[in-house]
Design brief:
Shape: globular
CATH class of the largest domain: Mainly Alpha
CATH architecture of the largest domain: Orthogonal Bundle
Helix content: 40-55%
CATH topology of the largest domain: Endonuclease III, domain 1
CATH superfamily of the largest domain: Hypothetical protein, domain 2
Distance between the termini: 37 Å
Strand content: 5-15%
Radius of gyration: 19 Å
Number of helices: 15
Structural class: alpha+beta
Order of helices and strands: EHHEEEEHHHHHEEHHHHHHHH
Number of domains: 3
Number of strands: 7
Strand order of the largest sheet: 1-5-4-3-2
Length: 286
DNA sequence: ACCCAGGCGGGCG
DNA sequence: CGCCCGCATGGG
């Protein structure tokens, strides 16, 4: 078991706020930790106060595991800086105070893309179920044994393993009309080798490229950029965010998606993604 | 029975 | 542009 000291971090809020880890991993019963697969390794994380303990089963070595934990849970983010920038009004101050320590997780881009393609016009509970069934059906099985420890788990399905299924196969797991989009994105992802070039592009250009995929619109593209590529300026606008922004900042008057993007960009700028996540989690749990 | 869910594509004015 | 519609599915 390895560990590190953490500040301004709350793993419970982080893993319960409907980020990819919510869909992929399994929350521990005490809600203070999670298990999830990272590549071909199985990772356990557990928080006790300011101590974050973690371990991996598989090929992930000690140094790489520590880097994975820091990256995955956004532990490199300066939360003082973030809170100063987003906590500028009563509503956001309340959201921040309620969920202090919640971080934007940084996830594998393909895994992020598939999760959020599935998320469209869907509920958090169902998204999780569908993702779990896909992992069970198409994930590669790994078994780890050392001494008395023996465990088996399935990694996240590869783009190829989704692309080669029929829409009927995918619908059998409850994916519904999204099956077509899942195949389309999986096909592109396997052909274009993971969209790694997006890291070198600016936000607008990267978003436009993601939106050229069938089944990826404005909101899903922002989710992929935020949770998959760590673009903290991305501001995904779903039904919750739209409602809340209109209610809190526009006196309940309807606004177009474009206007809300302009508002968020001007108000929260480089940390709009954090503003969005606190707003989303807060609004959903009211 | 009914409504809605971390939307998107397509068609229309 | 903005608006409206259909879309699979199941949980509340």
């Amino acid at each position: 078991m390895q560990s590190m000291r953490v500040g301004d971090f709350d793993i419970t809020h982080t893993i319960e706020s409907a980020q990819p880890l919510t869909f992929i991993g399994d929350e521990r019963p005490d809600r203070k930790g999670i298990t999830y697969t990272c590549g071909d390794s199985f990772v356990e994380v557990d928080q006790r106060g300011k101590r974050l303990a973690y371990r991996a089963y598989g090929s992930l070595g000690r140094a790489r595991l520590s880097r994975e934990i820091i990256a995955r849970f956004g532990l490199g983010d300066d939360m003082g800086d973030v809170y100063r920038r987003i906590g500028t009004d009563a509503f956001m101050k309340k959201a921040v105070s309620r969920y202090r320590g919640m971080r934007i997780t940084r996830n594998e881009p393909w895994e992020t893309a598939l999760c959020f393609v599935i998320s469209q016009f869907n509920s958090v509970k169902r998204i999780r179920g569908i993702v779990k069934r896909l992992i069970a059906a198409y994930g590669r099985e790994h078994t780890f044994s050392a001494g008395s420890v023996r465990l088996s788990f399935r990694s996240f399905p590869s783009p190829e393993s989704i692309a080669e299924r029929s829409t009927g196969d995918l619908m059998a797991h409850g994916a519904g009309f999204r099956a077509r989009y899942m195949r389309a994105v999986a096909r592109e992802w396997s052909e274009q080798r993971g969209f790694s070039k997006l890291r070198d592009k600016d936000y607008a250009e990267a978003k436009e490229e993601l939106m050229s995929l069938e089944g990826v619109g404005d909101k899903v593209a922002d989710c992929i950029l935020l949770f998959g590529y760590g673009r903290l300026e991305a501001f995904p606008i779903d039904t919750w965010i739209k409602r809340v922004v209109e209610r809190v900042y526009f006196r309940g008057r309807k606004q177009s998606i474009r206007k809300i993007h302009e508002f968020a960009d001007e108000r929260w700028g480089a940390y709009a993604g954090y503003a969005q996540q606190y707003m989303f989690h807060f609004a959903r749990n009211e």
